[in-house]
Structure formats: structure tokens, C-alpha cells
Design a protein that fits this description.
Strand content: 15-25%
CATH class of the domain at 114-212: Alpha Beta
CATH architecture of the domain at 114-212: 3-Layer(aba) Sandwich
CATH topology of the domain at 114-212: Rossmann fold
Radius of gyration: 20 Å
CATH superfamily of the domain at 114-212: Vaccinia Virus protein VP39
Helix content: 25-40%
Largest sheet: 4 strands, mixed
Length: 216
């Protein structure tokens, strides 16, 4: 993949009273930002991967624990037009900011709304779904099932996407129940073709990308 997209603010110490010379011990960016409350425990987890995840990390990128706008930005670098939907206005604002950093803001239509309500009125060539997995605790689940996806089960999410196009891509946990993944292809008549890719970052297995209906 190409460049991915967080920028941390810094503060300057004020001069002490009087004419005494000032001796300031510089703190590492990470320590300073933690003290300012910028890095949460979940974001800290990805600190050492920040430039792999967002190559323009220091150029004004904004990010929360789930990452914001990376997928939409990547699609906008390849496709002429992208529609990005999230129900959280704050996430949408951060994603719009990040798209500006990458120079693709004019190629993305950011919408604040409920995907399930909007899906019937949308049309597109491909739908990319990256539903929440329930936080880091998903790793402790031996066999991740469709009903554990948020905000609705994976079957409901997939069926909503089918109203837009049969070409659907889903990013799912690495411990996903593959039998249930294959069952999704049977929700269409005739059944959709399916291709499953394993996704690695620096040798670490991060998740799977499932392509339906020749969307690979």
C-alpha cells in the first residue's frame, strides 16, 4: 500500500521569574505527549508503528484508537471518487483533516450518518466494510464469529452492503471463523465468488481481507 496517515502538539516552557539562566531538560516526544494526555493507552500500543500506518504522521494527522480515514485515503489515491460514512462526527472531522494532508480531500465525500439507513440510497462499484471488532479483547477469542461484529452482526452488515453492489470487501479479525465468512457468499443468488487474503505488517498477522463478487 502507499503512504498512510497524526500530529502531536508541543508546548514551550515559559521563562522563570528573574534573570536566572534557564536549564530545560528535553523530554522525548512520546513522554511529553503522554504527560499532556494526548496518547491514550490504546494509541500508545501503535506508537512504534506510526510511520508504517501513517507515513505523514508528523504533518498534521489526527487519529484516535481506531485510526481515522486511512482506508478512504488509500481508495481515493486509486479511485476517482470515494464515499466515506461514519456515524461519529468527530471521526469524520479527523478523517477530513487527514485527507487534506494527503491531498485527496476533493476525491472523498465524507458523510456523518448511519450506514444501515443510508445504504438503500447509495450506489457504487465496490463497498469496503471495516466494522468494529470490539476492541483489543478480540484477540482473546479463539473463534471470532459474525455475531461479535459491531454495531450489528456480520450478516446484517453484509446484507446492507448488498443493496449497494455485490462487489464487497470486508476487513475482519485474523481469528475470524472462516466457515461463517464463506456463508456470506451464499446470501446471494447465485453465490458470490470469494477470495481471502491474510494481511501482515512487518511480519505480524493483523487481519484478513475478504473479497466477494470479483472485487479483488
Amino acid at each position: 500500500m502507499k503512504q498512510k496517515p497524526q500530529n502531536f502538539n508541543s508546548t514551550a516552557a515559559k521563562d522563570p521569574i528573574g534573570k536566572q539562566k534557564r536549564r530545560v531538560k528535553k523530554k522525548s516526544g512520546k513522554k511529553r505527549e503522554k504527560e499532556e494526555g494526548i496518547i491514550t493507552p490504546l494509541i500508545e500500543k501503535y506508537w512504534f508503528q506510526r510511520y508504517n500506518l501513517f507515513s505523514k504522521y508528523d504533518e498534521g494527522i489526527k487519529m484516535d484508537e481506531e485510526g481515522v480515514g486511512g482506508n478512504a485515503i488509500q481508495f481515493a489515491e486509486l479511485c476517482p471518487f470515494v464515499v466515506a460514512i461514519d456515524i461519529d462526527p468527530q471521526k469524520v472531522n479527523m478523517a477530513r483533516n487527514n485527507a487534506k494532508v494527503y491531498g485527496v480531500e476533493d476525491s472523498i465525500d465524507f458523510i456523518v450518518g448511519d450506514f444501515f439507513q443510508l445504504a438503500p440510497s447509495l450506489k457504487g462499484d465496490v463497498v469496503f466494510l471495516s466494522p468494529p471488532w470490539g476492541g483489543p479483547s478480540y484477540k482473546r477469542i479463539g473463534n471470532f464469529t459474525m455475531d461479535l461484529l459491531k454495531p450489528k452482526d456480520g450478516y446484517s452488515i453484509f446484507q446492507a452492503a448488498q443493496r449497494i453492489t455485490p462487489k464487497i470487501v470486508m476487513f475482519l479479525p485474523r481469528n475470524m471463523n472462516l466457515n461463517e465468512v464463506e456463508e456470506l457468499s451464499w446470501l446471494s443468488s447465485p453465490p458470490l465468488s470469494i477470495e481471502i487474503e491474510e494481511n501482515y505488517l512487518e511480519g505480524s498477522f493483523k487481519g484478513i481481507t475478504v473479497c466477494f463478487g470479483g472485487s479483488a
